[in-house]
Structures are given as C-alpha cells and as structure tokens.
Specification:
Radius of gyration: 25 Å
Number of strands: 5
Oligomer: single chain
Number of helices: 21
Strand order of the largest sheet: 2-1-3-5-4
Distance between the termini: 84 Å
Helix content: 55-70%
Shape: globular
Largest sheet: 5 strands, mixed
Number of domains: 2
C-alpha cells in the first residue's frame, strides 16, 4: 500500500493529467456520431472514401481526383483511408480516428511541456489546451489540422531541444500533411540566419550544413510537388493560387483578425496577454527569466509570427491556426505560474490562484459564435449540422423518390449515406440547376428572401428548418 501511495505521490501530475484526458474523452464521445460537416463533408472524407473504394490508398497526388485533394499533400487522407479500410467507413469510426488524433496530441503536448517547463506547467497547460474551443471542436472532426498540430509539436520541440533528427522527421511529416507546415522550417532557418549574423559565421561550413539540414523538410515537399506536376500538370492547385493577396489594406485587416484569433478570441485573452507579456519580459527584462526559458519564448514567438504572416497572405480560416494555439497556451501558462510563484510563497495559494486563473480562461469551452459564416472553430458547427440533418430526414420521408435541387452542404448529405445524414439509400439530386426538378432542398445563411433559387424560377416554400442562423428551405417549383 505504501508503494502505491508513494507511486501516486511521485506521479501526481501525470495522474491528474491522465484523469483530465479521460474526462475530455468522455465529454467528446457525445460528438462522434455527429454527421460530417463542411470541409470534412465536401473534401477530406470524400477523398478518403475514394481512396478506400477504388483501392488506391496512396500518398501520390494522382491517386485521387484533384477536386478532392485540392493539391494538398495526402498523408492525412492516406491515414484516414487506411482507418476506413481496416475498421469500417462509418461516421463513428471516422470521428473516433479524429478523437484519437486529439488524444495523442494532448499526451504528446504534456510530455513535451514537462520536458521544457516542468510537470506543474505541463498539467495546467494540457488541461487548458483541451478546453480551448478551437481544439475542443476540431477534436471530433476529420480535418488535417489536428494531425498537423501533433506533428508541429514534434518539429518545434526538435528546434527547442536541438534534436535535428526529431525536427527532420516531424517537420517532414507535417509538410506531407499540409502546406502551412512550411512555417516550421521557416522558423528554424530564420533563427539560424539571425544567429549566424550575431556570431558572424554566416558562411562557415558548419552553418551551411545547419541550413541544409534545416531545409530538409522543404526538400521532401519539393519531391511531392514534382510528382504532383508530373501527375496533375501543376505544382499547386490553381484555385488556391488565386487566394494569395498582397494588398496593404487587406493584409492589415487580416493581421488584426489573426492577432485576435490567436491571442484574444474564444476566451483566450487572459492566456494570450500572459504570453505576450512573458515574451516582452524576455526581450526587455532579460534578467528576470533564465536564458534557456528565454530561448523557448523566442522560438515560440518567431514561429507564431511566421505562421501569422503565412496565414495573412493566404486564404484564411480560423481553424488553420490550431497548430499555433498550443504554443500560446504553453508560454502563457509558464509565465502566469512564474509570476504567481514570484509573488506568493505558499504552495496552497499558488495552486488556488492557478486554478482560478485557468478555470476563468477555460470558461469558453462551449463557445458558439454565430456572427460569422459556418466554421469548424467552435461548437456552433453542430447547430448547422442539426438543421441540415432535420431537413434531409424530412425530405427522405416525404420525397424519397424525387430528384431534388440541392446546394452545398445539402447535396453531400443526400449523395452518400456514409456521411451520416440519411437513414436509407442516397437520394438523387441536381446541383446548380442542371436539371429541372419539382422540389428543392436549399441551404442558406440569411433571410428567406435570399434563398438561392434563381431569378427566373417561381416557387413556394413548403417548409423551413431553422436554428436561428443557418436555414434550409424545402421548396416546390411552379410550372412555367
């Protein structure tokens, strides 16, 4: 018995982290049956289905329709298709895989945080990361951002601890998951450049080798691009090239929005401000924080800045910044606990203040923001899923044999029962008014007058499905 209590005392923080992750899993199991939504419904899940159905489960870009791959590297889709092939292609299996990625990300985050800042910081930061609305929402959706976050943790850890092999492996796999991972080697190469200027050894042989090793993930990605050019005829998806922008006004507006998403929104303002203050102290009051910890803050800050710049010049959704959030949480957590320990000497006071602070920061767990278009960065996405499912179930009962005019995301729900919306077989549909149909099932985000019908068509509304934000109208077209 004494051995047991000694073990519990010795592994106290690990045990509390384990309990916290178990609670997280129990809460998230409620969401694994939720039908697929938006980009997982329209891009990533169909891509995995196509790989699995055709038997071409591969990392090669030519293995699936470019409209599904969108020119992205295919490591996530490859893993997703393997899971579908081995365990089945149901919504539950798909979202269990997504939850698995979230769980290993939390475990990996705790392990790395413990090595960098110690057990206490690791425990609190892990709990806080699990309650971030963006992390909480994406932990049960089949999107590549969670896998990217997991791999980014390893890549940045390799930079922090100067473990080149760890850096090379994780960063290369991240590059094969999504292009935005380019900010990981960009962080290391920028850091090496600044360091070489300071030490005046930019052209030394040792520095050259460091630059070449830092660029290794870029070489891996270049090989993918060359294969993509051979198989698809282009390096990057042409539609995505059009999203890149350089206008000053647009960049400034984007920068402000990105700043808010990283440091302020979804209740992150407390931990975000703590991170920024901690970084400022590292730059201007260096004597207060040890050199090793300052270097960690410098790397985190540089990574976040480069990630923000990359997001600003590209097409941007809030979820794309998930891989940045763990570093804000970890740095902010360390700084708050550091300040509390400096001000208070009692361990009980420190613990209670930390609990109060981080509980306040995590109160946005069920955050819903319906003032922006449907996204996956908080739990409001379930409202859109529910209203779409209600409409499709009603149509399945009332128009089971009709061809329905439908727009996205409704037609994806009608097309494949594996997407989680249909109880029976798929329902034929027409998109973009390619066929004349008697009935339509149309999703829209605004008032009824803006139902996407088409100015030349007359119709009357039979039924509407509404959650106060997203709407679906069941309509009947009148004969001309």
């Amino acid at each position: 018995m004494n051995k047991f209590f000694n073990l519990v005392k010795k592994q106290y923080f690990e045990l509390l982290t384990f309990v916290a992750i178990i609670i997280f899993i129990i809460i998230k199991l409620h969401d694994i049956h939720t039908p697929y939504f938006w980009d997982e419904l329209g891009v990533y899940v169909p891509a995995a289905f196509q790989m699995k159905d055709t038997g071409h489960i591969s990392l090669l870009p030519g293995s699936i329709d470019p409209l599904f791959s969108r020119g992205h590297p295919l490591l996530f889709t490859f893993c997703n298709a393997l899971v579908f092939k081995v365990f089945g292609d149901t919504v539950t299996i798909g979202h269990l895989f997504a939850l698995f990625l979230a769980i290993i990300t939390l475990i990996f985050f705790f392990i790395l945080a413990k090595k960098i800042f110690g057990k206490r910081v690791a425990l609190v930061a892990t709990i806080l990361l699990s309650t971030q609305p963006i992390f909480f929402a994406l932990s049960a959706q089949l999107l590549p951002e969670m896998m990217l976050t997991f791999l980014t943790l390893g890549g940045i850890y390799g930079i922090v601890k100067k473990k080149p092999v760890v850096y090379a492996i994780f960063s290369s796999l991240a590059m094969l998951t999504k292009e935005s991972a380019i900010v990981i080697p960009a962080t290391l190469l920028t850091m090496l450049f600044i360091e070489s200027i300071y030490l005046k050894d930019l052209f030394s042989l040792k520095r050259l080798w460091q630059f070449l090793f830092g660029a290794f993930p870029l070489f891996v990605f270049t090989i993918f691009l060359i294969i993509q050019k051979i198989q698809n005829g282009w390096f990057l998806f042409p539609e995505h090239i059009g999203y890149i922008h350089w206008g000053i006004g647009q960049l400034l507006r984007g920068a402000w929005r990105i700043f808010q998403d990283i440091f302020i929104s979804q209740g992150r303002w407390m931990i975000g401000i703590a991170f920024l203050f901690g970084t400022g102290i590292c730059f201007f009051y260096r004597q207060l924080i040890s050199e090793s910890k300052r270097k960690v803050f410098y790397i985190f800050f540089l990574f976040i800045i480069i990630a923000a710049i990359f997001a600003d010049v590209n097409y941007y959704l809030t979820r794309y910044l998930l891989y940045v959030i763990p570093f804000v949480v970890l740095g902010g957590t360390y700084f708050v606990i550091f300040i509390i320990e400096k001000v208070f000497t009692s361990q009980k006071v420190i613990q209670w203040l930390a609990i109060i602070f981080f509980t306040s920061s995590g109160l946005e767990l069920a955050h819903k923001n319906m003032s922006v278009s449907p996204d996956t960065c908080d739990m409001s996405y379930k409202l859109v899923v529910n209203v779409s499912k209600q409409a499709i179930n009603w149509a399945e009962q009332n128009w089971p044999h009709d061809t329905l005019e439908a727009n996205f995301p409704i037609y994806q729900g009608l097309e494949d029962p594996r997407n989680g919306y249909l109880k029976g077989n798929s329902i034929p549909f027409s998109a973009n008014f390619q066929k004349l149909t008697k009935h339509g099932l149309l999703f829209f985000l605004w008032e009824e007058g803006n139902i996407p019908i088409g100015s030349s068509l007359k119709y009357h509304i039979i039924k509407t499905f509404d959650d106060g934000y997203a709407h679906v109208a069941a309509v009947e077209y009148e004969s001309p």
